[in-house]
Each structure stands twice: as C-alpha cells, then as structure tokens.
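Researcher: Sequence recovery benchmark, item below. Answer with residues only.
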C-alpha cells in the first residue's frame, strides 16, 4: 500500500493530466451531441437504436480491426496501417470540427455556408501536421477531437441498455486481451511506434518527447527494490525507482466507452425536467434537459471513480486493462444517478435482437 501511494505521488501530475483529457473529450462530445441528434446521423437509423444485432456487429468489426492491424504489423506493413488509420481519423475529425466551425462562422460572419468544406480543409491541415510531426501534444489534440466525435456518433446510435451490453462485453474482452492473450499490448506498441492518435499521452517529466518512443514500450515495468531491500534498515522509507515508461498512456477506447454511455444517456432518457437553454450564442446546438444531463454527470463521476481505481494499479508500472474499472464505474454511476432522478422504470429500454 505504501509503495502504491509513493508511486501515485510521483506520477500525480501525469495522472491528473490524463483525467483532464478524459473529461475534456467527453465534454466536447456532449457539446456537439445536439448537432448530430437526428435520425439520419445515427449509424443504423432510428430503428437500429434498439437492435442488439448491430452491437454484435460492432464487436465483430473491432475484433477484425485488431486482427488485421496486428497481422499487418507482423508482416512489416506499417505503411498500410498508418495510411488506413490516418484516413479514418481524418473523416472522424469532421464530426467534432464542423459544429464549432459553423458556430464561429455564425458568430463572426452570420452564415454557416461552406462550414463543412472548411472543416475538411482544416482537418487535412491537422492530419498533415500529425503525419510530419507527431509530438505528444499533436497526438493528444487529434485523439481528443476524434474521441469526441466517435463517442457522439456511437452514443446517438444506441439506447443506454445496448451501450451497457456493449461495455460489459468489451470489458471482458479487454481483460482477456491485456492479461490473457496480451495481444492488446502488441496493438498498443504498434500504435506508439507509428505515433498514431488512438491513445492519449501524459508525460511524467518536462522535456519528454513522444518522438523518442519506440515499439515495445508497453513491455517496460517499473523496477522496484526487492523484498529484502524493503526490510533493510539502511533504506528506511519506501523508494520507487524512476525507471520504465516516461509517460502515462491510455487507449482512446478507455475514454470512448464511458463517453458513449453518457451521450446515449442525454440522447435517449426521457426529456423531463427544466430546459437549460441552448448552448452559447446560437440555437444551432439545440436544447439540453436537466434530468438526462444529471444522469450523464453521474455516469461521468462513476467513470472517474473507476479511473482512480485504475490509477492505483497503473502507478505500479504494469499495463492494465482499463475497461473493467472504467466501464464498471460508469455503469454503476448511471444506475445510481438514474434511480435517484428517474426511478427504475426508465433506465432499462426495450431492445430486440433484430
């Protein structure tokens, strides 16, 4: 226990920074949710929001994606990995960039004409910057923007009950992939080596450069004194050596899964309670209702509690499966807050297989 506390003290800045990126990504998603909250924007239409088969399809696609990426990496075909992911990220960025560009144009130019095409050009500029100079702050910027877009698009596409099923299965898979087969660590190493923003990076020290990270960083562990050293009176206080990884890494999926439950909550729970009003300066963003927003905030707080639990393990220097704690905390927060705000009848939606 004392060893863990010392490790957390040593890394609290990077852990706080990572928590800030976690919250920022979700808040960005909440801010753009009203823009995309219509039937045509949902991945499988209005009828697909309650169909379990589409969640199963999503899980199959995640499995295929993971297999293909690892296979390409083992065949030294990293160029195809980077090209495919950069292409996907480029279009995902648009979901976040477009609403804010449209808002800025409305404020300063009283028009939203061509906002979508301006967003495409700005996204292209950002992706070129990422390709040529993938430093940690560029990677984080793209990761946060992409994460906000993804949680919004998935969150508006499925009711909370389906999202929770998705999260439970994903958490089980994540635990097995990190602690069992360990292929998730291989995937993370590939993403770090290629400097791709499907993870977030929180440096532990000033002067850190993500450009210096090489493949295999997830294999590193913090070297600690032996049990004999702990008992040696010459050492006295607990000491943790500052070796191992120089930054804290979190996969973007660890933010996306709790985040999409929050978006689904404010999208599909009954729109009761007072209306908070539109987001600043424009009716473009629609309206937010207090009751579902309160449950969303409770879900976020639950996810942050899971994050704190996760950090007690990460501080020890071993890679950890994030989804069991993060998803578990978010789901618990959803039910606790939902029972207080609504009662049990509104928290479980009717779903079908097809």
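Model:
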């Amino acid at each position: 226990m004392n060893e863990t506390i010392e490790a957390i003290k040593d890394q609290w800045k990077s852990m706080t920074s990572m928590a800030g990126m976690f919250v920022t990504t979700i808040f960005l998603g909440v801010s753009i949710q009203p823009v995309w909250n219509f039937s045509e924007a949902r991945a499988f239409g209005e009828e697909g929001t309650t169909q379990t088969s589409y969640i199963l399809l999503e899980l199959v696609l995640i499995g295929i994606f993971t297999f293909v990426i690892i296979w390409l990496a083992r065949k030294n075909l990293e160029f195809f990995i980077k090209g495919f992911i950069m292409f996907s990220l480029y279009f995902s960025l648009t979901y976040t960039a477009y609403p804010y560009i449209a808002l800025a144009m409305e404020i300063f130019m009283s028009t939203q004409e061509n906002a979508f095409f301006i967003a495409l050009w700005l996204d292209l500029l950002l992706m070129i910057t990422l390709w040529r100079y993938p430093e940690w702050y560029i990677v984080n910027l793209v990761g946060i923007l992409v994460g906000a877009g993804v949680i919004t698009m998935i969150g508006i596409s499925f009711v909370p009950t389906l999202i929770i099923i998705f999260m439970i299965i994903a958490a089980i898979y994540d635990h097995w992939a990190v602690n069992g087969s360990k292929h998730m660590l291989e995937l993370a190493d590939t993403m770090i080596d290629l400097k791709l923003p499907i993870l977030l990076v929180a440096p532990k020290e000033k002067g850190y450069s993500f450009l210096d990270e090489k493949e295999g960083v997830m294999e590193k562990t913090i070297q600690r004194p032996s049990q004999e050293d702990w008992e040696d009176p010459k050492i006295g206080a607990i000491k943790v050596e500052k070796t191992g990884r120089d930054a804290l890494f979190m996969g973007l999926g660890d933010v996306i899964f709790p985040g999409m439950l929050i978006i689904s909550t404010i999208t599909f729970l009954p729109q009761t309670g007072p209306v908070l009003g539109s987001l600043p300066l424009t009716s473009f963003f629609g309206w937010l209702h207090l009751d579902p927003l309160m449950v969303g905030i409770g879900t976020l707080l639950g996810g942050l509690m899971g994050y704190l639990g996760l950090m007690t393990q990460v501080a020890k220097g071993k890679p950890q499966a994030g989804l069991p704690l993060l998803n578990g905390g978010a789901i618990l927060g959803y039910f606790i807050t939902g029972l207080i705000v609504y009662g049990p009848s509104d928290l479980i939606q009717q779903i079908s297989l097809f």
